[in-house]
Amino acid sequence: MPVTDVAIDKIKDMIISGELAPGDRLPKEAELAQRLGLSRSSLREAVKALCLIRVLDVRQGDGTYVTSLEPNLLLDAMTFVVDFHRDDTVLDFLAVRRILEPAATALAALHMSEDDITELGALLDELADAPTVEALVANDLQFHRKIADGSGNPVLCSLLDSLSGPTARARIWRGLTQEGAVARTREQHTAIYEAIAAHEPELARSWATVHVAGVEQWLRSTLTQTDEAEPPDAEPAAAAS
């Protein structure tokens, strides 16, 4: 195993064992390197790597600390990876969203407070009668983020947040090209909201499934038609750019 990986594992073990807790400051570099049996250069590389994935935080002039280790912080690294997706993987992201989002919506129907439900309804009321596609998608992102947050599960919420970017581009494309897509989105959002407000988890789950599956089905059909229309040596279409 590379020396840097050994160093990372040893710091990780200190955190997992409870020797270092969230918010704790790491011992000074020389002391920690000696304690772990590492060179200072290997320790520095390990600290850099753990800072990138938000496990450690180097504070200039103060020292190195364990972060809060909250799910939204640690899952930032996954969001970074998701940003490098290719257009031909958008369907994969939508498939994952179709699995996770109905579950989050069902949980929201059980756990969202009345104040949060009122705010969710207010989001729907913010849209003009004939919103632009950009305004609708921005509202859509807020709407689904509010529901994910209302699930009461911060890990699930963070996972859905990381999927927002690639699937948002597909939603914009659909809104621009499919007749009736804007009206359909508004109707489905209203149905999801009403199911949550009525505290009907299975109804909320069903509407969320219909909502996400509709985008996925449209994109799959559109990509198939695009592939069939192109000559064999043509460049592939940029599906959701």
From TrEMBL:
InterPro entries: GntR_C, TF_FadR/GntR_C, Tscrpt_reg_HTH_GntR, WH-like_DNA-bd_sf, WH_DNA-bd_sf. SUPFAM superfamilies: GntR ligand-binding domain-like, Winged helix' DNA-binding domain. The keyword Transcription applies. Residues 1-69 form the HTH gntR-type domain. Gene3D superfamilies: GntR ligand-binding domain-like, Winged helix-like DNA-binding domain superfamily/Winged helix DNA-binding domain. Keywords: DNA-binding, Transcription, Transcription regulation. This is FadR/GntR family transcriptional regulator. It comes from Amycolatopsis rhabdoformis.
